[in-house]
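call fold(seq) -> tokens
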Amino acid sequence: MSSISSLFERQDFKRRKTEQTRNGKDASKLTEIFKDRTIKNGLPGPSSINDDLEDGEDDNRPGSEEEAPQDEEGGRFFGGGLTEEQNEVLNYVDTLEDSSVDEKYDEQWIRMQIAKVERAVQHNTRLRTKFVDKPSKFMDSEVELDKSVKYLSLLTEHTDLYKAFVDFNGLELVLTLLGHDNTDIVITTLQLLEELTDEDTEAEEKDLGILLDAIDKQSVVSSVISSLRRLDILSRSRVLGASDDEGAGVFQALNIIENLTVSQAIVDTLFMKNEQDTGLLSWMLERLLINEWPCTQNKQYCCELLSIVLQKSYISTSVFCAYSCKDSTTGEILEGVDILLRVIAPFRKSDPPEEMDETFELFQNAFDSLFVAVQNSEGKQLFIKNEGFDLLVPILKHGGSLGKAKTAKLIDHALSTGRSRDIAIYFCEAGGLGPLFHAFMSSRYIDPKYHRIGGREKTSRVALDDLLGTVSSLFRNLPEISSHKNKLLARFIERKFEKTIRLLTLQRLTQEKLEKVELIISADRNTFLKTKPKRGDLLEDWQVELEAREAEWFIQRQLDGGSRLQLIDLSIAWLLAEDESDDLGIKSEIIRQLGSHDPELYNIKKTLREFKDEIRPASAKDIGNRDERDSLEEVEQREEALDMTEMISTLIEFL
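ret:
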């Protein structure tokens, strides 16, 4: 249980669930005792309730004057300094602690709690039906209903009862409360669902799986989305400065949906289920179109959740790229890619202020969503249609540091995946080559400090690997005989081959770094090999550990130069192939720069062979014979890998 002092502090909901500070579950059940709160949805405050009471009817509500406890010790100087409400809280805590010692949490207990909620629902329904115009008559029943729902949060401490909760129709019962007329009850229900699905509950995979399966089958997501829409409208229409409980409810609803993304079956159907629109994507896009300055937590979380769903689900990404909605302000029909570009557009010349946390993260989340969308074939076409590079190229040239870094990464993602010929041509036509090579020639990339072992690129700086990836992708995707390919080659000729020389300088620095990394890995491997046991029963575990370490060493090598060297050598191989007859002088300049270091291009060929082996699909036969269990995403990835390996093989043969 939380400390008592925490019960007297106001709880604020925060932007991320990992930053939320929760009071204990028992403490959350006490809020109705000490929080002087007017029930919403048209219900009167305490003073007006007294006026509605009939003559001779007792006011038995907690806190009435007749029940107010008197200070036995004679006033505030002798009574401990606590208010009567705080005394009531402390007394209730003592009672709760005494009564919970012998409470047994089993199937019988959860059956009883579900029955209590069901009785509270029935009682509240009867009173609401009987006293439609007298809220005072059913207000207490809603307090009891709220309390009984909150008490179910104890399930998070006994997740082995999730199955019983589902079997006894507890989830189905709770689901009905999301449509309750009183939004306080709706918010409490959302809080319960958020807690039950939260990863912090540390539920066993089997128990959580049972709950998630039930959530999927009972269309809980649709009910949560309906509540989300309702609460969001109330939140945005509230009086400025008023308590935003509905806004907190929206945040909890989004949190529930994020929790559910651990299930691939659910995340694949968040936007479309059984060929029916769930309403979530339309709400997200409409919400992102609403102009807010500064950005609110819920708009930021909406964009963050969109990026999470797109990154986790190829199916949902495909739905997103094919989806469009109507702008309620202008009446325009807009695609999701267009809406994300509009979110970014206000910051084409400078980054959002870092002190404006939500706006700053909204900017990043919009880019994160676009990273995924532009890898989809339809997303690429929408990016071209909505003139994405007309926005991004100026950002790469004149934008803020974070905007430049995100833009460089987005360009690399757009060009390096799938069929990217059209988008590569569009990049050149939008004037992208100039800003690209201006960034490539930054002196920062040839500073020895930049190539230190273990060094990682800051997210607010343009990553060299993104630029190198874009260059190699342009060579691969631009048509052979075209003005665009000629303009690309001209960049490596101008100013006495300065870009060609820079590429070779980066190759040397990266090779030197990689050699040091290889020595470190080799020493670690030799040390571990000396621990090989002789006993057969220990050898199997040792081999498993060796495989795990080999995977770690591979990742270390790739992060500390292996991946970068592959991109560099791939671009060098393209330059040699494009200037095979040395008409442009690029080939002779490369040979001259390499000198005695690698005159036979042995190191370049070795790097390309390693690169090909890493991305090689199982076999060409597997590509043509798709297993029914394979997803469309897996098939596309294998086809792309096959195209890439064939291209690298051709370059190796040429060298």
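The CA atoms of residues 180 and 186 lie 6 Å apart.
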